[in-house]
Structures are given as structure tokens and as C-alpha cells.
Amino acid sequence: MSKAKNCCVYGSDRYYATCVLEDAVNALYQYVSTVTITCFVTISNVTITGSYASAYGSGTMVISAGGYSDSGSATATYYLQKVGNSWKIYAP
Length: 92
Hints:
This protein has 92 residues and is of the alpha+beta class. It is built from two helices and four strands, in the order H-H-E-E-E-E. It has helices at 2-6, 13-28; strands spanning 35-49, 52-65, 68-83, 86-91.
């Protein structure tokens, strides 16, 4: 999950949402040895203004653990900030 958190602006809403997902995965590890998260995302309508950007995304996330799987789909406009040479998500 450290790679996922590294894609977020530290301290942002998106960073903390990723921490919540990390906590859920860690809880699953108490019962199963393998947890798999697969994401399918389509990104469109990217707008860049200086060090900030927005992008519309629609996607599905599938979480599998111990023979059980669950999925969810969502659409959102994501907001990004350029930090150094990288774009990082800070919202929604």
C-alpha cells in the first residue's frame, strides 16, 4: 500500500482514504494469507493549470481474499497536484 499512498498528496483526503483501505487489507490478513486488489480505470477529460490538474475517472475495484471477492464501481473527478516531478492525487 505504500506505493498507493505515494501517489497521493501526504495528508490529503485521498491519502487518508488509502490508509483506510490499507487498514481493511491488514484486517483481512488476520484471516487469509493473500489479499489481491485489482483496479480497472478509464481516465478522460484531463485539464492542467500550472501545478494543478483535474481528471475524470470511472473504474472498478475488485478485492479478493481467501476465495471471497467483492467489487465496487465509481466515477469521480480527481484533483491532482504536481509535487516535484510527479503528479499526486489529493481529492476527492
